Automatic annotation (TrEMBL):
This is Aminoglycoside phosphotransferase domain-containing protein. Residues 23-207 form the Aminoglycoside phosphotransferase domain. Pfam families: APH. It comes from the Bacteria. InterPro entries: Aminoglycoside_PTrfase, Kinase-like_dom_sf.
Amino acid sequence: MANYIKRRAPEVAGSLAAELQMAASEVRFYREIAPEIGVRVPECYRAELTDEGSLLELEDLSAWRPGAEPAAAASLLRSMHDQWTGRAHVRWPWLRGISAGDELVARLYDGAWPKLAARSDMSAPVREFGARLVGKVRQVEAQLLNAGPLTLAHGDASGPNLRTAPDGEIALLDWEDVSAAPGVMDLTWHLVSSVEPARWSEALDAYGPSDGLLETLPSSMVQGYLSMSDWPEGSAEAVGFDARLAAAVAML
């Protein structure tokens, strides 16, 4: 079977990808962290970063089932977080910090909100909470500083970045957002991005103690609103985000 080739052109100056050095972070992840991470990730056969962009040659896991059961995904995240609590940022000091990109994300959110607020597929509680975030995204992101000890965080533990093997093994893909952050941040984004509200309790129970959840949830919701804005009005994806954002509002 052919390997999976992931190429990225040089990042556009001023973009979030450039601000967060996503390509460089993923290349360094596969070179330095993947060999000892302790959870399943694609095997890496080549990881290069040049003036022409980045190139990764990875194990092809496309035959595995996309996504993962909520409890299984939460357990995997917990295992990784426990292993690297208090250690990841020391072992790899180049890992992105909590505040990276906050100003740009705040501008993106405030700029996107007028069109988001006008959507007919946004429920009233979600619209009301979203309006309260305008002008306050940097404050929301600052709450992450109080959400718990730093560990190795995937940064985008959504369903599309998970694969489940026939035997149930789960792999985490796409490490562009790897960072040193409170682990519960991965859990809240997994819920907001990918888990139907009726099954949130499964993930929460499987993850175990989730101190800091209420501090990280608003940050994940900011990303949820921005993700919803990428989908056509009334689409299944947009409706799903609204339902999950509503569940998050109810938790707060």
